Amino acid sequence: MDIHIIGNRIKEFRKQRHMTQKELAAAIGVSTQAVSQWECGGAPDVSLLPAIADKLVVTIDALFGREGGGVQDISGTLIGWLRSRTNDRRLHDLTRLLWEAAMDLSLGDGGPRIEYPKTCCVRNGDQIVSETQLRIILQTNEGSIIGVGAEDMSYMCVFPMPETGFEPYLLSNDTYRELFASLCLPGALELLWWFCQSSNHRLFSAAAAAGRAGVDPEDARRALEAMTDAGVIKSMELEMEDGPLTAYRLEDDSAVVPFLQFAKCLQETSVMTWVDERTKANPKN
């Protein structure tokens, strides 16, 4: 077998993965010059082949140009794996997979691995030491990952950095002020949570929503009007026999729990797993 084929295949797969020689070298712990030498006709030490194959997401057979050893279909593998999980575990298992991926991005092949915890709160035996959730936070020049990884409660959010940064995709400060001001009104959060749990996009009058959420009717009316102005709640005028009636529904109940979770993260400043991979200032951030 022509030994030069290995270097040629490394170069081919590296470019398919949009990796530079420097990035590949750093990923497997060699110099950039070593990768350059391989691609110019040399060959890596055989002990490095598993690591090279892993980082290029191919089989070792692929590096030797053997039949059927092309780039692995990671998307297809992931979908197949998810389909093999039970229906009540798919999101839990996917979240744990993302947690493991975040740990690997941070630690690579070195550093102590953090065991997936049973609870998201800090405990000493059976006693809770802190209600603050243990979080993993990974920040790089590419963006960030933040989440909670535990058997009792978990979520993972991935935020790749846009070319222009995040600011163009955010709302204006005045829009956020209007939103937060509406949520500060008496009964607003109670109504928001009740709609999230119960509405299923059904329409409710202010009086019906107030009664079911346990909120004073006048407080409910003011809060619903303010949240409607802020875009959180949608309203509709209905023609009834005794006159017009304003009915309300939650615009997007899927956003409420993530919103409240991130508000909790913003307020908690202690007892967390913090993994920071930033190595230099990002001018776009």
Total helical segments? 12
Question: What does the main sheet amount to?
Answer: 4 strands, mixed
Query: Helix fraction?
Result: 40-55%
Q: Quickly count the domains.
A: 3
- The total beta strand count reads 9
**What would you call the shape?**
elongated
Strand order of the largest sheet: 5-4-3-9
The arrangement of helices and strands along the chain is HHHHHHHEEEEEHHEHHEEHE
| Low-pLDDT stretches | 279-285
Give Rg in angstroms: 26 Å
Alpha-beta content class: alpha+beta
β-sheet strand percentage: 15-25%
> Averaging pLDDT over every residue, what do you get?
84
Q: What is the rounded distance between the termini?
A: 49 Å
Which tags fit this structure?
285 residues; alpha+beta; 434 Repressor (Amino-terminal Domain); Arc Repressor Mutant, subunit A; 3 domains; 4-stranded mixed beta sheet; 3-stranded antiparallel beta sheet; 44% helix; 18% strand; elongated; disordered C terminus
Structural description of this entry:
- The structure is a single chain.
- By secondary structure, the protein is of the alpha+beta class.
- The protein folds into 3 domains: 4-63, 434 Repressor (Amino-terminal Domain) (Orthogonal Bundle); 90-165 and 267-276, no CATH class; 173-251, Winged helix-like DNA-binding domain superfamily/Winged helix DNA-binding domain (Arc Repressor Mutant, subunit A), CATH 1.10.10.
- 44% of the residues lie in helices and 18% in strands.
- The chain has 12 helices and 9 strands.
- The strands form 3 sheets. The chain has a 4-stranded mixed β-sheet with strand order 5-4-3-9, covered by helices on one side. Strands 6-8-7 form a 3-stranded antiparallel β-sheet.
- A hairpin with a 2-residue loop joins β3 and β4 (143-148).
- α1 crosses α3 (32-39), α2 (21-28) crosses α3 and α9 packs across α10.
- The chain is elongated.
- The chain starts with a helix and ends in a 9-residue tail after the last strand.
